[in-house]
Amino acid sequence: MSFQANQRAYNPPARPIAVICIDGCADEYISVSIAAGRMPHTEAMVKKGYRGLVRGALPSFTNVNNSAIVTGMPPAVTGICGNFFLNPETGEEVMMNAPEFRRCGTLLTAAADAGRKVAFITAKEKLRTVLGDGIVERGGIVFSSEKVNEAKMVTHGVDDAESIIGKPRPEIYSGDASVYVLEAGAALVEQGRADFLYLSLTDYMQHKYAPEAPESLDFHAKLDEQIGRLLAAGCIVAATADHGMNAKNKADGSPNVIYVETLLKKTFGESGIRVICPITDPYVIHHGALGSLVMVHLDDTSKTEEIGDFLLCQTGITEVYNREMSALKLELAPDRIGDLTVLCGRDYVVGKTPEHHDLSVLKGGLRSHGGRYEEMVPLLLSEPLNADYVRKAQGDPRNFDVFDFACNGSN
Question: Taking the model in full, what pTM does it have?
Protein backbone atom coordinates (compact mmCIF):
# COMPACT_ATOMS: atom_id res chain seq x y z
CA MET A 1 0.00 0.00 0.00
CA SER A 2 2.71 2.47 -0.95
CA PHE A 3 1.68 5.91 -2.12
CA GLN A 4 3.07 9.25 -3.18
CA ALA A 5 2.13 12.74 -2.08
CA ASN A 6 3.76 15.95 -3.26
CA GLN A 7 6.64 14.06 -4.90
CA ARG A 8 7.43 12.14 -1.72
CA ALA A 9 7.11 8.35 -1.50
CA TYR A 10 5.60 6.63 1.54
CA ASN A 11 5.94 2.87 2.08
CA PRO A 12 4.01 2.19 5.29
CA PRO A 13 4.03 -1.26 6.88
CA ALA A 14 0.69 -3.04 7.10
CA ARG A 15 0.50 -2.25 10.82
CA PRO A 16 -1.62 0.68 12.03
CA ILE A 17 0.23 4.00 12.05
CA ALA A 18 -0.66 6.81 14.45
CA VAL A 19 1.07 10.17 14.08
CA ILE A 20 0.46 12.63 16.91
CA CYS A 21 1.01 16.39 16.86
CA ILE A 22 1.32 17.40 20.52
CA ASP A 23 0.45 21.05 20.02
CA GLY A 24 2.84 23.41 21.81
CA CYS A 25 5.09 20.60 23.05
CA ALA A 26 8.55 22.00 23.59
CA ASP A 27 10.96 19.13 24.26
CA GLU A 28 11.25 20.04 27.94
CA TYR A 29 7.63 18.98 28.49
CA ILE A 30 8.64 15.44 27.53
CA SER A 31 11.89 15.53 29.51
CA VAL A 32 10.34 16.85 32.71
CA SER A 33 7.35 14.49 32.54
CA ILE A 34 9.54 11.44 31.93
CA ALA A 35 11.93 12.47 34.73
CA ALA A 36 8.95 12.77 37.07
CA GLY A 37 7.82 9.24 36.18
CA ARG A 38 4.62 10.49 34.55
CA MET A 39 5.15 9.15 31.01
CA PRO A 40 6.27 5.52 31.41
CA HIS A 41 4.79 4.32 28.11
CA THR A 42 6.47 7.13 26.21
CA GLU A 43 9.75 6.55 28.02
CA ALA A 44 9.73 2.85 27.12
CA MET A 45 8.65 3.68 23.55
CA VAL A 46 11.59 5.98 22.82
CA LYS A 47 14.09 3.68 24.55
CA LYS A 48 13.10 1.02 22.05
CA GLY A 49 12.62 3.43 19.17
CA TYR A 50 13.94 6.95 18.68
CA ARG A 51 13.87 10.36 20.32
CA GLY A 52 15.42 13.50 18.86
CA LEU A 53 14.82 17.10 17.87
CA VAL A 54 13.49 18.42 14.57
CA ARG A 55 13.03 21.87 13.13
CA GLY A 56 9.50 23.07 12.60
CA ALA A 57 8.22 25.51 9.99
CA LEU A 58 8.19 29.25 10.58
CA PRO A 59 6.12 31.05 11.65
CA SER A 60 5.88 28.51 14.47
CA PHE A 61 2.08 28.62 14.54
CA THR A 62 -0.57 25.91 14.47
CA ASN A 63 -2.05 26.21 10.98
CA VAL A 64 1.38 26.63 9.37
CA ASN A 65 2.89 23.52 10.90
CA ASN A 66 -0.13 21.22 10.78
CA SER A 67 -0.46 22.07 7.09
CA ALA A 68 3.20 21.22 6.61
CA ILE A 69 2.88 17.93 8.53
CA VAL A 70 -0.09 16.58 6.55
CA THR A 71 1.48 17.52 3.21
CA GLY A 72 5.16 16.86 3.97
CA MET A 73 5.91 20.29 2.54
CA PRO A 74 7.06 23.71 3.88
CA PRO A 75 4.83 26.80 3.81
CA ALA A 76 6.33 27.94 0.51
CA VAL A 77 4.51 24.97 -1.05
CA THR A 78 1.39 24.76 1.11
CA GLY A 79 0.75 28.51 0.96
CA ILE A 80 -0.30 28.45 4.62
CA CYS A 81 2.00 31.08 6.15
CA GLY A 82 -0.03 31.95 9.24
CA ASN A 83 -3.33 31.41 11.00
CA PHE A 84 -4.33 34.87 9.74
CA PHE A 85 -3.14 37.01 6.84
CA LEU A 86 -3.78 40.05 4.66
CA ASN A 87 -5.36 38.70 1.48
CA PRO A 88 -3.64 40.60 -1.36
CA GLU A 89 -6.59 39.92 -3.68
CA THR A 90 -9.14 41.64 -1.44
CA GLY A 91 -7.12 43.77 0.99
CA GLU A 92 -9.00 42.10 3.85
CA GLU A 93 -7.54 40.52 6.96
CA VAL A 94 -8.84 36.95 7.04
CA MET A 95 -8.39 33.61 8.78
CA MET A 96 -6.76 30.81 6.78
CA ASN A 97 -9.48 28.41 7.88
CA ALA A 98 -10.62 26.84 4.62
CA PRO A 99 -9.00 24.27 2.30
CA GLU A 100 -9.00 26.64 -0.67
CA PHE A 101 -6.12 28.51 0.95
CA ARG A 102 -3.94 25.38 0.76
CA ARG A 103 -2.00 24.96 -2.47
CA CYS A 104 -1.24 21.22 -2.45
CA GLY A 105 -2.92 17.98 -1.52
CA THR A 106 -2.47 16.06 1.70
CA LEU A 107 -0.81 12.71 2.25
CA LEU A 108 -3.94 11.69 4.18
CA THR A 109 -6.04 11.58 1.01
CA ALA A 110 -3.19 9.82 -0.80
CA ALA A 111 -3.10 7.18 1.94
CA ALA A 112 -6.87 6.75 1.66
CA ASP A 113 -6.55 6.32 -2.11
CA ALA A 114 -4.00 3.59 -1.41
CA GLY A 115 -6.53 1.70 0.69
CA ARG A 116 -5.66 2.82 4.20
CA LYS A 117 -8.48 3.48 6.68
CA VAL A 118 -7.70 7.12 7.48
CA ALA A 119 -8.79 9.01 10.57
CA PHE A 120 -7.92 12.67 11.11
CA ILE A 121 -8.97 13.81 14.58
CA THR A 122 -8.18 17.27 15.87
CA ALA A 123 -8.89 19.17 19.03
CA LYS A 124 -9.48 22.44 17.19
CA GLU A 125 -12.28 22.66 14.67
CA LYS A 126 -10.26 25.13 12.59
CA LEU A 127 -7.82 22.37 11.61
CA ARG A 128 -10.60 20.02 10.54
CA THR A 129 -11.87 22.67 8.15
CA VAL A 130 -8.42 23.60 6.79
CA LEU A 131 -6.96 20.12 6.35
CA GLY A 132 -9.77 17.54 6.43
CA ASP A 133 -11.09 17.92 2.89
CA GLY A 134 -11.34 14.85 0.69
CA ILE A 135 -10.94 12.27 3.45
CA VAL A 136 -14.61 11.47 4.12
CA GLU A 137 -15.24 11.09 0.39
CA ARG A 138 -12.59 8.35 0.41
CA GLY A 139 -14.18 6.47 3.31
CA GLY A 140 -12.24 8.11 6.12
CA ILE A 141 -13.23 9.74 9.40
CA VAL A 142 -12.63 13.40 10.28
CA PHE A 143 -13.84 15.31 13.33
CA SER A 144 -12.72 17.65 16.09
CA SER A 145 -13.17 17.15 19.81
CA GLU A 146 -14.30 20.78 19.92
CA LYS A 147 -17.39 19.95 17.84
CA VAL A 148 -17.55 16.16 18.11
CA ASN A 149 -21.27 16.42 18.89
CA GLU A 150 -21.89 17.87 15.40
CA ALA A 151 -20.33 14.97 13.48
CA LYS A 152 -22.45 13.51 10.68
CA MET A 153 -21.76 10.61 8.35
CA VAL A 154 -21.96 12.74 5.21
CA THR A 155 -19.53 15.42 6.42
CA HIS A 156 -17.39 13.64 9.02
CA GLY A 157 -17.55 9.96 8.04
CA VAL A 158 -19.27 8.99 11.29
CA ASP A 159 -22.56 9.55 13.06
CA ASP A 160 -22.69 10.08 16.81
CA ALA A 161 -18.93 10.39 17.19
CA GLU A 162 -19.35 10.85 20.95
CA SER A 163 -20.28 7.15 21.13
CA ILE A 164 -16.80 6.13 19.93
CA ILE A 165 -15.45 6.57 23.47
CA GLY A 166 -18.75 7.15 25.27
CA LYS A 167 -17.90 10.68 26.37
CA PRO A 168 -19.57 14.00 25.56
CA ARG A 169 -17.83 16.95 23.95
CA PRO A 170 -15.03 18.37 26.14
CA GLU A 171 -14.41 22.06 26.83
CA ILE A 172 -11.95 23.38 24.22
CA TYR A 173 -10.14 25.46 26.85
CA SER A 174 -8.96 22.37 28.73
CA GLY A 175 -6.50 19.52 28.65
CA ASP A 176 -9.46 17.19 28.14
CA ALA A 177 -9.84 18.46 24.56
CA SER A 178 -6.46 16.93 23.73
CA VAL A 179 -6.90 13.73 25.74
CA TYR A 180 -10.23 13.18 23.94
CA VAL A 181 -8.43 13.16 20.57
CA LEU A 182 -6.09 10.38 21.66
CA GLU A 183 -8.89 8.42 23.33
CA ALA A 184 -10.89 8.54 20.10
CA GLY A 185 -7.90 7.57 18.00
CA ALA A 186 -7.05 4.61 20.22
CA ALA A 187 -10.68 3.46 20.20
CA LEU A 188 -10.90 3.62 16.40
CA VAL A 189 -7.78 1.43 16.09
CA GLU A 190 -9.06 -1.01 18.73
CA GLN A 191 -12.39 -1.23 16.90
CA GLY A 192 -10.67 -1.82 13.54
CA ARG A 193 -12.13 1.34 12.05
CA ALA A 194 -8.85 3.15 11.34
CA ASP A 195 -5.27 2.13 10.57
CA PHE A 196 -3.68 5.40 9.41
CA LEU A 197 -4.25 8.23 11.87
CA TYR A 198 -3.27 11.85 12.33
CA LEU A 199 -4.15 13.04 15.82
CA SER A 200 -3.62 16.77 16.41
CA LEU A 201 -4.00 18.18 19.93
CA THR A 202 -4.42 21.71 21.33
CA ASP A 203 -1.87 23.77 23.25
CA TYR A 204 -4.16 25.23 25.92
CA MET A 205 -2.23 23.49 28.71
CA GLN A 206 1.16 24.56 27.38
CA HIS A 207 -0.05 28.15 27.12
CA LYS A 208 -1.18 27.99 30.74
CA TYR A 209 1.48 25.90 32.48
CA ALA A 210 5.25 25.45 32.50
CA PRO A 211 6.57 21.87 32.16
CA GLU A 212 7.15 21.36 35.89
CA ALA A 213 3.69 22.58 36.97
CA PRO A 214 1.57 19.84 38.61
CA GLU A 215 -1.22 20.52 36.12
CA SER A 216 1.17 19.96 33.22
CA LEU A 217 2.51 16.73 34.72
CA ASP A 218 -1.02 15.41 35.25
CA PHE A 219 -1.92 16.31 31.68
CA HIS A 220 1.09 14.55 30.17
CA ALA A 221 0.35 11.48 32.28
CA LYS A 222 -3.08 11.32 30.66
CA LEU A 223 -1.54 11.65 27.19
CA ASP A 224 0.89 8.89 28.06
CA GLU A 225 -1.91 6.53 29.06
CA GLN A 226 -3.47 6.90 25.60
CA ILE A 227 -0.12 6.54 23.86
CA GLY A 228 0.12 3.25 25.75
CA ARG A 229 -3.24 2.21 24.33
CA LEU A 230 -2.10 2.99 20.78
CA LEU A 231 1.05 0.93 21.31
CA ALA A 232 -0.93 -1.95 22.81
CA ALA A 233 -3.22 -1.89 19.77
CA GLY A 234 -0.19 -2.58 17.58
CA CYS A 235 0.41 0.92 16.23
CA ILE A 236 3.65 2.37 15.03
CA VAL A 237 3.45 5.62 16.99
CA ALA A 238 5.24 8.79 15.93
CA ALA A 239 4.88 12.13 17.69
CA THR A 240 6.11 15.64 17.08
CA ALA A 241 4.86 19.18 17.73
CA ASP A 242 3.81 22.12 15.64
CA HIS A 243 5.79 24.52 17.83
CA GLY A 244 7.31 24.95 21.25
CA MET A 245 6.26 27.37 23.97
CA ASN A 246 8.00 30.02 26.08
CA ALA A 247 7.07 32.46 28.84
CA LYS A 248 6.81 36.02 27.52
CA ASN A 249 6.68 38.17 30.65
CA LYS A 250 8.51 41.02 32.34
CA ALA A 251 9.91 40.72 35.84
CA ASP A 252 6.60 41.98 37.28
CA GLY A 253 4.69 39.22 35.49
CA SER A 254 3.06 41.44 32.85
CA PRO A 255 3.32 40.48 29.16
CA ASN A 256 6.55 41.63 27.52
CA VAL A 257 5.04 43.17 24.37
CA ILE A 258 6.51 45.25 21.56
CA TYR A 259 3.62 46.98 19.77
CA VAL A 260 5.12 47.18 16.30
CA GLU A 261 2.44 49.21 14.51
CA THR A 262 2.35 51.77 17.32
CA LEU A 263 6.14 52.04 17.25
CA LEU A 264 6.32 52.44 13.48
CA LYS A 265 3.51 54.98 13.20
CA LYS A 266 5.06 57.07 15.96
CA THR A 267 8.32 57.15 13.99
CA PHE A 268 7.24 57.08 10.33
CA GLY A 269 3.76 58.63 10.36
CA GLU A 270 0.22 57.41 10.77
CA SER A 271 -0.54 56.34 7.21
CA GLY A 272 0.60 53.53 4.97
CA ILE A 273 1.65 51.01 7.64
CA ARG A 274 -0.33 47.95 8.65
CA VAL A 275 0.84 45.20 10.98
CA ILE A 276 -0.71 41.72 10.80
CA CYS A 277 -0.44 39.25 13.68
CA PRO A 278 -0.49 35.80 12.00
CA ILE A 279 -1.05 34.03 15.33
CA THR A 280 -4.59 35.43 15.40
CA ASP A 281 -7.22 32.70 15.62
CA PRO A 282 -10.52 32.07 17.43
CA TYR A 283 -8.74 30.89 20.60
CA VAL A 284 -7.80 34.27 22.11
CA ILE A 285 -7.71 33.00 25.70
CA HIS A 286 -4.62 31.00 24.72
CA HIS A 287 -2.48 33.99 23.76
CA GLY A 288 -4.45 37.21 23.22
CA ALA A 289 -3.25 37.24 19.56
CA LEU A 290 0.29 37.93 20.79
CA GLY A 291 3.06 35.81 19.30
CA SER A 292 6.72 36.01 18.37
CA LEU A 293 6.30 37.04 14.72
CA VAL A 294 4.36 39.71 12.83
CA MET A 295 4.10 40.88 9.23
CA VAL A 296 4.45 44.55 8.26
CA HIS A 297 2.66 45.75 5.13
CA LEU A 298 3.74 49.08 3.59
CA ASP A 299 1.97 51.24 1.04
CA ASP A 300 5.33 52.81 0.16
CA THR A 301 7.72 49.90 -0.33
CA SER A 302 10.62 52.27 -0.98
CA LYS A 303 10.80 52.59 2.82
CA THR A 304 11.18 48.85 3.37
CA GLU A 305 14.94 48.91 4.03
CA GLU A 306 14.78 51.99 6.25
CA ILE A 307 11.98 50.59 8.37
CA GLY A 308 13.65 47.19 8.55
CA ASP A 309 16.90 48.74 9.79
CA PHE A 310 14.96 50.76 12.38
CA LEU A 311 13.21 47.66 13.69
CA LEU A 312 16.46 45.70 13.97
CA CYS A 313 17.80 48.40 16.30
CA GLN A 314 14.93 47.89 18.77
CA THR A 315 15.52 45.91 21.96
CA GLY A 316 13.78 42.56 21.71
CA ILE A 317 13.64 42.43 17.90
CA THR A 318 16.01 39.70 16.70
CA GLU A 319 15.31 39.20 12.99
CA VAL A 320 13.78 41.31 10.22
CA TYR A 321 13.51 40.10 6.61
CA ASN A 322 12.12 41.72 3.49
CA ARG A 323 9.68 39.78 1.33
CA GLU A 324 12.36 38.19 -0.85
CA MET A 325 14.51 37.05 2.06
CA SER A 326 11.47 35.84 4.02
CA ALA A 327 10.52 33.61 1.10
CA LEU A 328 14.10 32.34 0.80
CA LYS A 329 15.22 31.93 4.41
CA LEU A 330 11.90 31.18 6.11
CA GLU A 331 10.46 29.08 3.23
CA LEU A 332 7.34 31.23 2.89
CA ALA A 333 5.06 31.97 -0.06
CA PRO A 334 5.96 35.55 -1.11
CA ASP A 335 2.38 36.56 -1.93
CA ARG A 336 1.06 35.45 1.47
CA ILE A 337 3.39 37.54 3.67
CA GLY A 338 4.18 41.16 4.44
CA ASP A 339 6.82 43.48 3.03
CA LEU A 340 8.71 42.78 6.27
CA THR A 341 8.67 39.74 8.54
CA VAL A 342 9.60 40.60 12.12
CA LEU A 343 10.70 38.09 14.79
CA CYS A 344 11.50 38.74 18.44
CA GLY A 345 13.52 37.26 21.29
CA ARG A 346 12.70 34.30 23.47
CA ASP A 347 10.95 36.24 26.23
CA TYR A 348 9.19 38.83 24.03
CA VAL A 349 6.06 38.95 21.91
CA VAL A 350 5.24 41.34 19.09
CA GLY A 351 1.80 42.83 18.58
CA LYS A 352 -0.09 45.50 16.67
CA THR A 353 -1.31 48.25 19.04
CA PRO A 354 -2.34 48.20 22.71
CA GLU A 355 -5.97 48.68 21.64
CA HIS A 356 -5.83 45.64 19.36
CA HIS A 357 -5.01 43.11 22.10
CA ASP A 358 -7.19 42.31 25.10
CA LEU A 359 -4.69 41.36 27.79
CA SER A 360 -7.48 40.82 30.33
CA VAL A 361 -8.01 37.32 28.90
CA LEU A 362 -4.50 36.32 29.95
CA LYS A 363 -4.61 34.99 33.48
CA GLY A 364 -1.37 34.08 35.21
CA GLY A 365 1.00 35.56 32.65
CA LEU A 366 1.62 34.95 28.97
CA ARG A 367 3.16 31.89 27.36
CA SER A 368 3.27 31.99 23.57
CA HIS A 369 5.10 31.04 20.37
CA GLY A 370 5.62 31.90 16.73
CA GLY A 371 9.30 32.70 16.32
CA ARG A 372 12.72 31.18 16.17
CA TYR A 373 12.79 30.21 19.84
CA GLU A 374 9.78 27.92 19.43
CA GLU A 375 11.04 26.33 16.21
CA MET A 376 12.77 23.22 17.62
CA VAL A 377 10.43 20.44 18.69
CA PRO A 378 10.67 16.75 19.61
CA LEU A 379 10.38 13.77 17.31
CA LEU A 380 9.42 10.50 19.01
CA LEU A 381 9.13 7.15 17.26
CA SER A 382 8.19 3.75 18.63
CA GLU A 383 10.48 1.86 16.21
CA PRO A 384 14.27 2.00 15.86
CA LEU A 385 15.51 3.83 12.78
CA ASN A 386 17.04 2.06 9.82
CA ALA A 387 20.46 3.20 8.58
CA ASP A 388 19.09 5.69 6.04
CA TYR A 389 16.96 7.42 8.63
CA VAL A 390 19.71 7.46 11.23
CA ARG A 391 21.62 9.58 8.72
CA LYS A 392 18.55 11.71 8.03
CA ALA A 393 18.03 12.31 11.74
CA GLN A 394 21.62 13.53 11.97
CA GLY A 395 21.05 16.12 9.24
CA ASP A 396 18.30 18.74 9.29
CA PRO A 397 15.12 16.75 9.95
CA ARG A 398 11.86 18.66 10.01
CA ASN A 399 8.64 18.14 11.92
CA PHE A 400 6.87 17.73 8.59
CA ASP A 401 9.04 14.66 7.95
CA VAL A 402 7.18 12.82 10.72
CA PHE A 403 5.02 10.70 8.38
CA ASP A 404 8.15 9.92 6.37
CA PHE A 405 9.88 8.65 9.52
CA ALA A 406 6.77 6.71 10.57
CA CYS A 407 6.21 5.08 7.17
CA ASN A 408 9.76 4.66 5.89
CA GLY A 409 12.10 5.05 8.82
CA SER A 410 11.96 1.55 10.24
CA ASN A 411 11.46 -0.60 7.13
Answer: 0.95
